[in-house]
């Protein structure tokens, strides 16, 4: 026995309307057209589906079974239509994101499984780079959006035509000192530090923050060692060679063996934002990426909140 699924809506409407005439009116068809479809359906199943009477029709046991099937088919079709409609509204395309090292490793990389789930239609390409390269890449359209950092004392670089900026988070600066420093001093006070400050490469995002903090001190000494990466700074500090400021976000990535961290008044924070290009027609994929980063860096968002991260 083979049933034409296309005939089931006629039986379903007959059951709901209580008769062929009422069903024909609801379907905007002639009564004979509805009767023909019912007759063909009964021929296919080889049993009567309705009992006709002057008052209308009553479903037989077989008719009730097919009506239940018709309702299931109707529900599945409607749910599928909703899913297709929702899928057609999801953003799609490609997004090229440039970011500095600690944002890439501390925020973007752990969130990639979540990206693939929430933005399945958006292909993400990431490139790690320094601030000048990121801004240049945005100007030349090598990137669709870039994550940038700056100390709170530094004004933001000019946006340029067709570029917008959205703040993401303020990442506190933390004093990192060799293990045992607090035990030796009792209370950590910047003016009383006996250890030198590690030199930091001018290309590092820490440079301006360290200069700002040290300018307020009555005196400070400089270590003969210069670093560019957070990992090198931690190694030098663990070796007892000096102290440094590091962003709290970056400290989450490394072992802090041999060092201790202190959040002190006046250290300030680095401001992290995302910049993106705006064309004549908004790009839904870029807009979705910006919104994703905003949600990802919102207060209270942690790796524990998201099993994928």
TrEMBL record:
PROSITE patterns: HTH_LYSR. Residues 1-22 form the signal peptide. One of its GO terms (cellular component) is protein-DNA complex. Residues 11-60 form the HTH lysR-type domain. GO terms for molecular function: DNA binding; DNA-binding transcription factor activity. SUPFAM superfamilies: Periplasmic binding protein-like II (SSF53850), Winged helix' DNA-binding domain (SSF46785). The keyword Transcription regulation applies. Keywords: DNA-binding, Signal, Transcription, Transcription regulation. The keyword Zinc does not apply. It holds the Pfam family LysR_substrate. Transmembrane segments: none annotated. PANTHER family: LYSR SUBSTRATE-BINDING (PTHR30346:SF29), TRANSCRIPTIONAL DUAL REGULATOR HCAR-RELATED (PTHR30346). Belongs to the LysR transcriptional regulatory family. This is DNA-binding transcriptional regulator, LysR family.
């Amino acid at each position: 026995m083979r049933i034409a699924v296309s005939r089931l809506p006629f039986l379903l409407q007959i059951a709901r309307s209580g008769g062929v005439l009422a069903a024909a009116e609801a379907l905007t068809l002639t009564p004979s057209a509805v009767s023909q479809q019912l007759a063909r359906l009964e021929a296919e199943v080889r049993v009567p589906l309705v009992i006709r009477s002057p008052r209308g029709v009553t479903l037989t046991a077989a008719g009730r079974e097919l009506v239940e099937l018709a309702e299931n088919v109707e529900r599945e079709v409607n749910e599928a239509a909703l899913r297709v409609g929702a899928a057609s509204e999801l953003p799609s395309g490609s997004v090229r994101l440039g970011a500095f090292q600690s944002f890439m490793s501390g925020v973007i990389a752990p969130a990639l499984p979540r990206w693939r789930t929430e933005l399945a239609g958006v292909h993400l390409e990431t490139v790690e780079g320094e601030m000048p390269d990121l801004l240049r890449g945005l100007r030349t359209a090598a990137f669709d959006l870039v994550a940038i950092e700056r100390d709170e004392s530094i004004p933001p670089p000019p946006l340029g035509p067709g570029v917008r900026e959205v703040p993401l988070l303020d990442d506190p600066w933390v004093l990192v000192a060799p293990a045992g420093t607090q035990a030796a001093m009792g209370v950590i006070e910047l003016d009383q530090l006996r250890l030198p400050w590690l030199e930091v490469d001018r290309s590092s995002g820490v440079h301006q923050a360290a200069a700002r903090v040290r300018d307020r001190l009555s005196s400070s000494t400089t270590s003969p060692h210069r670093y560019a990466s957070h990992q090198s700074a931690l190694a030098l500090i663990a070796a007892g060679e000096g102290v440094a400021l590091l962003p709290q976000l970056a400290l989450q990535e490394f072992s802090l063996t041999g060092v201790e961290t202190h959040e002190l008044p006046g250290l300030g924070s680095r401001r992290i934002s995302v910049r993106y290009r705006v064309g004549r027609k908004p790009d839904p994929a870029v807009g979705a990426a910006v919104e994703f980063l905003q949600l990802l860096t919102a207060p209270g968002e942690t790796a524990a909140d998201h099993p994928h991260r």
